[in-house]
Amino acid sequence: MGGPALGLRLIVLALASAGLMVADHRQHHLAKVRDWASAAVYPFQWAVQAPVQAWAAMRESFATRAEIEAANVRLAADNLVLRLKLMRFESLEQENQRLRTARESTARVVERTLIAEIVRVDLDPFRQRVLVNKGTRDGVFRGQAALDANGIFGQVTRAGPVSAEIMAITDPEHAIPVQVNRTGARTIALGTGRSGLLSLPYLPQNSDVEEGDLLVSSGLGGVYPPGYPVGKISSVVRDPSQPLLAVEAVPLAALDRDPEVLLAWFDNAVVEPEPGPAEPQP
User: Fold this and answer.
1) Cα atoms in the Cβ-side hemisphere of radius 13 Å centred on 261
2) 63: buried, middle or exposed (CB in 10 Å: 19+, 13-18, 0-12)?
3) Is the pLDDT of residue 173 over 80?
4) Mean pLDDT lowest for which of 42-56, 125-139, 192-206?
5) How far apart are CA 251 and CA 230, in angstroms?
6) Which domain-ending residue is among 75, 105, 135?
C-alpha cells in the first residue's frame, strides 16, 4: 500500500510550518523549544569548532611569542647602547671634573697650562716614566713640571716635536725638594722605583715629623713652585743607632691611574737651555 502523494505531503508540511510560524509569532510557544534545541546542539557545535579555534589560538600564541622575543632583543640592544653612552658620559664628566680641579689648583701661580694625554708607560718596573702626546711644537720643554688634580706628577726629561717623556716623582733618578707643611722642615724626597712610595733619607733624628704629615714642594731648584702637594708621610722609623730617620711617604698624584697630566708654565720656572753647537773660538 503506497504512501500519500508527494504533492499532498508538501502541502501538509507547508501548512504545518505556516501554522507553527503563526503560533510562535503570536503566542511564542516555540521559544523554549528553540532554547532546548540550542542547548542540545551546542556540544556538537563546540566539538566541530574546537580544532579550528585551537589551531588559531596556537598560531596567535606562537606569533605573539616571536614578536615578544624580537622586541626583547631590540630592547636589550638599545639598553646596551644607552648604557655604553651613559658610561661614556660619566667618564667625560669625571674627566672634566678632574681637569677643572687641576686647573683650579694651579690658577694662582700658573701662566699657562696644557693637557697632555699619556700614550705609553715604561714597562721597566724600576723606571717610572710615561710618554705624552705633546712636544716642542706645543711649547713643551725639558724640565717642565707636570701635575694632576691631586699634586705633583713629575717633570719632562725629553721633549720631541710631537711627544715628550715625563719622569714621575717616584722614579729612582728623581729628587724633589719638599717641605713638611706642619713644621716647615725642608728636605728632599727621592723616588724609590715604586709608584706608591717616596723616600726621605736626609732627616736628622731630632726632626719633628709624624705619620700623616703633608709634604709640599719647597720651591727650591726652580722646577716646581712652592706649596704644591707632593705626598703624605706614611712611615717614620727612629733608630737611635742611626744619625738619620728612615721616613717614607705616599705620593698624592695618581701616578699609576692618570690618563692625562697637566703641563704647566709657572711664573718662576727655570727653562734649561737645550744643548746647541759650540760657538767657534776666535
Assistant:
1) 33
2) exposed
3) yes
4) 42-56
5) 6
6) 105
Residue with cell 722609623: 237
Q: Which three cell numbers stand for residue 174?
A: 728623581
Domain boundary among 88, 105, 122: 105
- Give the residue numbers spanning the domain of 87: 11-105
How far is the C-alpha of 237 from the C-alpha of 244, rounded, in Å?
A: 9
Cα-atom radius of gyration of the chain, to the nearest Å? 46
- pTM summary value: 0.60
Name the DSSP class of 70.
H
Whether 1 is in a domain gets the answer no
Single-letter amino acid, residue 27: Q
The sign of the dihedral angle between the CA atoms of 22, 26, 27, 28 is: positive
Give how many domains the chain has, as a whole number: 2
Cα-Cα-Cα-Cα dihedral sign, residues 207, 211, 212, 214: positive
The percentage of residues in the chain with a pLDDT greater than 90, rounded to a whole number, is 37
